[in-house]
Amino acid sequence: MTHPSRSGGQILVDALNIHGVDTAFGVPGESYLDVLDALHDSDIRFIINRQEGGAAFMAEAYGKLTGKPGICFVTRGPGATNASIGVHTAYQDSTPMILFIGQVGNDFIDREAFQEIDYRRMYGQMAKWVTQIDRADRIPEYIARAFQVATSGRPGPVVLALPEDMLIDTAAVADTRRYQPVQASPSAAQIATLREMLAAAQRPVVLLGGASWNAQACADLQRFAEANALPVGCTFRFQDLLDNAHPHYIGDVGIGINPKLAARVKNADLVIAIGPRLGEMTTGGYTLLASPVPSQRLVHFHADAEELGSVYQAELMINSGAAQACTMLAAMAPVDPSAWRGTVAEAKAELAAYQEQPPIFKDGTAPLDLWQVVQELMAQVPRDTIITNGAGNYASWAHRFYRYGGMRTQLAPTNGAMGYSVPSGIAAKIVDPSRTVVTFAGDGEFMMNGQELATAVQYKAGVIIIVFNNGMFGTIRMHQERDYPGRVSGTGLHNPDFAELAKAYGAHGEVVNATAEFGPALARALAHTRDNALPAVIELRYDGNLITPNATLETIRKTAEAAKAAKAIK
User: Fold this and answer.
1) What is the pTM of this model?
2) Which of 408, 474, 491, 554 is 20 to 30 A from 42, alpha carbon to alpha carbon?
3) Please, is 22 exposed, middle or buried when counting C-beta atoms within 10 Å of its C-beta (0-12, 13-18, 19+)?
4) What DSSP line would sit under 474-521, residue for residue?
5) What is the secondary structure of 200-233 as a DSSP string?
6) CA 541 to chain centre
7) Helices (H) and strands (E) in the chain — how many of each?
8) 8 SS3 class
């Protein structure tokens, strides 16, 4: 049915409603005023951010949590460039997202007009599809395609530029149907081949990761693992695909991997990878599995046919979405797991040992024990708490020691984007206000998007943000001491009082200097977020020498100096 004449902005917002959009994030701009006007009378929540990078991160987090495209609106030029970090994250993390960018009018195109950029060239390698809508009567078509592309196969970001004059043009045009995500599925023959390979194995390991998972897929995977007594690891920053308390969960396969788990993967005779790309972070720089032909027999499920065989020549490559794969795996007749049944308990015991208090805290001399911080956190928060973090060594305290409660309890960027923690935590609380949300943020990382605390206060998003303040860009300092020992350059930070900064925004703020202080501070933060629906910040001040659970900066520096001295003697 063709509607009466509508403006381009109204057609666009009507299309978003048809495709089920309930929330959009962004920073307003004069380049898309007609969209803002149409949003005024819609049921779509428009969350006003303080910077486009924060808006794009929030949209990406929304996409991770819901499986639906996160929607972001920014203005042309500077707004679009600020938002690019969220698009890059969505691309590498395989997250459905649509970025709308106001654009100069068609009459000014290709003149390098005010803030004009060719977005096809700018975003060409970091989005699944980039285009510009030049005619108002084609908006429904473009929007439907954008949702289809963002959610089908390997999910990812789509970028649509909106010329200003197109948005105010009117057109009488029909709406489309709602989008229908499309995923491939394994064939019966492929599942039969997998079963034969599994039956012949002695040391199988399952690795989970990637996008297109849902609660049913996770439940189906669990049934497959239980029926076949399989050890299951979760790849880098996808630790929530299996409840970490489950007997078959054996740890995360990524940065800082348990050495015994790394050995298990290397020594496996069959690796069944369901969903992950098997990228650099998951494979330890392509060492856990040799490239291009692994020593292990490899079965690789992935939603994108082009990913299969691009790095690893698996023995069995299956183009399939995670949900479709797990449905068939759960229905597969079990094999006899006698050869490896005992390895599940062994691997679980190795994980428990790896999660014990690290040696750097066992002597009790450190005023603030970060391991105890995580233990206290797990004791006080519900199992379905969402934990978010950005990039930095501080994240290892969550990744190694926190036990994620299952599907969608972890939000973290696999592309290692700093500045992700605060926006993603706020977005999570906006999407699901009933759940507890705790953000781990480094001091340098917090400062990249900490201004979004104002967004949290405005929309009453009661997230708890734990700031790990060690006065440095810790990851870079660690590598600096390893490669250029004793030559500190560009990594020291002078920070604000984060607790007082939080109060200035209207949030609750506390400083913790000692282990015994954290539990009461966390209890107060939980009560504040629950009773006032406002955010809380807990600043942890600790010795920057305690850089990772495995090593101090001092030991890293001394080891590097000794290695250099030995090399010089030779």
Assistant:
1) 0.95
2) 408
3) middle
4) HHHHHHHHHHSTT---S-B-----HHHHHHHHT-EEEEE-SHHHHHHH
5) T-SSEEEEE-SS---HHHHHHHHHHHHHTT--EE
6) 26
7) 22, 20
8) helix
| CA–CA separation, 298 and 313 (whole Å) | 8
pLDDT digits (tens), the chain, 570 positions:
678 899 999 999 999 999 999 999 999 998 999 999 999 999 999 999 999 999 999 999 999 999 999 999 999 889 999 999 999 999 999 999 999 999 866 676 766 655 667 888 889 889 999 999 999 999 999 999 999 999 999 999 999 999 999 999 999 999 999 999 999 999 999 999 999 999 999 999 999 999 889 999 999 999 999 999 999 999 999 999 999 999 999 999 998 899 999 999 999 999 999 999 999 989 999 999 999 999 999 999 999 999 999 999 999 999 999 999 999 999 999 999 999 999 999 999 999 999 999 998 988 889 999 999 999 999 999 999 999 999 999 999 999 999 999 999 999 999 989 999 999 999 999 999 999 999 999 999 999 999 999 999 999 999 999 999 999 888 889 989 899 988 989 999 999 999 999 999 999 999 999 999 999 999 999 999 999 999 999 999 999 888 899 888 999 999 988 888 888 887
Q: Quick one: DSSP state of residue 130? A: E
Can you state the percent helix, strand and coil of the chain, rounding each to 5?
Answer: 45, 15, 40
* Cα angle: 233, vertex 151, 131; to 5 degrees: 130
Q: What gap in Å lies between CA 102 and CA 26, rounded to an integer?
A: 11
Short-list 508, 426, 510, 418, CA closest to 461: 426
